[in-house]
């Protein structure tokens, strides 16, 4: 099983929105709802380009903004990150059943380490972070890497995602994909869609591979 983090396991997309809003204010601007929607599930470089353009300052340095945002997010995450409905229970069921699990996220390692205090490091056999693969989502590399670290072909793995970018990455890798919308709709992308992980169990996930 291959699991995204932000918006899938953890209800952290709203926390990212706080950090991005704070970054826009730091630069003397205001982030639009449209710009925020375009950032969901995307990589940091693209998100900084979207934000800088949105506030009318496309010349701003992307790395400086990234560093500021990630420092802010570390502060926010340290205060605690809530689980998405059903996520903790599904993860616990997978571990109890001995199902191999990898975390596959576009978030960089130092922030993931903060979130693992909530998620539990022992819940994962492998962790793939956005700064540890040559290409990030929507490229298939993150999910191909996650499957390989578990010792399985991607086609024999179920990936669970909450964003169009993540769904595209998992599908491109050849995974069976369960999409759980958080901030944006996921219909028509080629994945199986469910409203909540609270209604999902392991037999259902296995059925997606048949």
Strand content: 5-15%
**What is the CA-atom radius of gyration, in angstroms?**
17 Å
Overall pLDDT: 95
Query: Which range best describes the helical content: under 10%, 10-25%, 25-40%, 40-55%, 55-70% or over 70%?
Result: 40-55%
State the helix count. Answer: 9
Low-confidence stretches: none
Largest sheet: 6 strands, parallel
Query: What order do the SSEs take from the amino end to the carboxyl end, as H and E?
Result: EHHHHHEHEHEHEEH
Characterize the quaternary organization of these chains. single chain
Measure the end-to-end span: 15 Å
Instruction: Give the helix/strand class.
Output: alpha/beta
Shape: globular
Record the strand order, biggest sheet: 3-2-1-4-5-6
* E-strand count: 6
